[in-house]
Amino acid sequence: VEELFAIDPLLSPEEREIRDTVAAFGERRLRPHIADWFEEGTFPAREIAPELGKLGLLGMHLEGYGCAGASATAYGLACQELEAVDSGVRSMVSVQGSLAMTAIHFYGSEEQKQRYLPAMAAGETIGCFGLTEPDYGSNPGGMRTRARRDGDDWVLNGSKMWITNGAVADVAVVWAYAEEPGQDRPRVRGFLVPAGTPGFTTREIHRKLSLRASLTAALDFDDVRLPADAVLPESRGLSSPLACLSEARFGIVFGALGAARDCLAAAIDYARTREVFDKPLAGYQLTQAKLADMALELGKGQLLALHLGRLKDRHEITGEQISAGKLNSTREAIAIARECRTILGANGITLDYPVLRHANNLESVLTYEGTAEVHQLILGKALTDADAFR
Ligand code: FAD
């Protein structure tokens, strides 16, 4: 597809090199194990994170503090190669870099940045990002988690749900309404909560049928006492976590297409060798129509992703544009994965091939970082000036 759409020549030699390095790592280190991790519902985050760190993939687009300072486009291409293996691996990298590290980089004190970012970039310290609650996903402004002052300390109460890396993380970035003396209304602020703080407990979420090679947890805070400097001092209001989400969404614009590309490659390969009614499946017009339509959507998606990458590198991208990319990539990727599954017939439902694993993963990718419907409403508002959220 890259050839069909002449995408390669649009990339710089450096971007191609980063992409190829990540692709080689994925094939060598991750792909041989991914079906087993998925089947077992596990991911060896502690083992893999330092390797991702060595490659400069954690907080890759951030500057300083041991981060690679790569371009947005290069970061997107890396996400695409990781997600070509599995959305769970890309999720780990997104949460560590685009959510937890970005929150500290954007809103942390110099001391917090020095303390956490180099170790997180190296993959020695793992972070998570707790915004969603059991009753508040698409509308995080309704969150119930509260931080109140007690002398200089903060006391945190509440719970978070569906938190990637939650149970394995050394530090949780937790968003809560902070009740501060002298303020008429509580406002959302970010808190750094180290694992092991008394009153902070985590529970791994099992029985997932999607993103099985990713660790997801519920977090509970029961009178968790934190020092004054646990708050991210520059975080003020819900716009702070939303700005982090925007960074992670951008990675998904590229990432989801990696999963789609992997499915299409598997389907083409299969169709060439599978004989039905005495000739290869690939020779039938119906199959070719499916493959052609999928290649078109994949190519168009990749061109849009690249365009958005260039806009982001010029600091010209808007939230609506990221929404458009996230909506398009995830929606088309899941459609492609499901169509590829049909080409593989019964074999397509097994873990011997990647297609249903990707399709199932993409259910989560369609839902997190703003559901498809939320992005439709963001675009709808931009098109009509009418705010459907109110
Ligand atoms: P809801 O908000 O309850 O939505 C249910 C349905 O209603 C959806 O179809 C939605 O689109 C629709 N809907 C919502 N509002 C409207 C509306 N106004 N009009 C029409 N339809 C609407 N969160 C974190 O904070 N950190 C993480 O690390 C994290 N990791 C995750 C990992 C996985 C595997 C998953 C599945 C989720 C993760 N999430 C995480 C949570 C994720 O961000 C939420 O699931 C998501 O925001 C949707 O929230 P919800 O599940 O509560 O669905």
Automatic annotation (TrEMBL):
Acyl-CoA oxidase/dehydrogenase middle domain location is: 128-224
Q: Would you kindly state one Gene Ontology biological process term found in this protein's UniProt entry?
A: fatty acid beta-oxidation using acyl-CoA dehydrogenase
Q: Where is the Acyl-CoA dehydrogenase/oxidase C-terminal domain?
A: 236-383
Q: Is Coiled coil a UniProt keyword of this protein?
A: no
Q: Name one Pfam family in it.
A: Acyl-CoA_dh_M
Arranged from A to Z, the UniProt key words for this protein are: FAD, Flavoprotein, Oxidoreductase, Transit peptide
The signal peptide annotation in the UniProt record is none
Cite the Acyl-CoA dehydrogenase/oxidase N-terminal domain residue spans from the record.
12-124
Question: Which transformation does this protein catalyse, written as a reaction?
Answer: a 2,3-saturated acyl-CoA + A = a 2,3-dehydroacyl-CoA + AH2
Q: Is the keyword Protein biosynthesis assigned to this protein?
A: no
Q: Which SUPFAM superfamilies match?
A: Acyl-CoA dehydrogenase C-terminal domain-like, Acyl-CoA dehydrogenase NM domain-like
Q: Which GO terms describe its molecular function?
A: fatty-acyl-CoA binding; flavin adenine dinucleotide binding; glutaryl-CoA dehydrogenase activity
Name any cofactors this protein relies on. Answer: FAD
Identify its protein family.
Belongs to the acyl-CoA dehydrogenase family.
Recorded hits in PANTHER family, A to Z, give: GLUTARYL-COA DEHYDROGENASE, MITOCHONDRIAL (PTHR42807:SF1)
**What is this protein's name?**
Glutaryl-CoA dehydrogenase
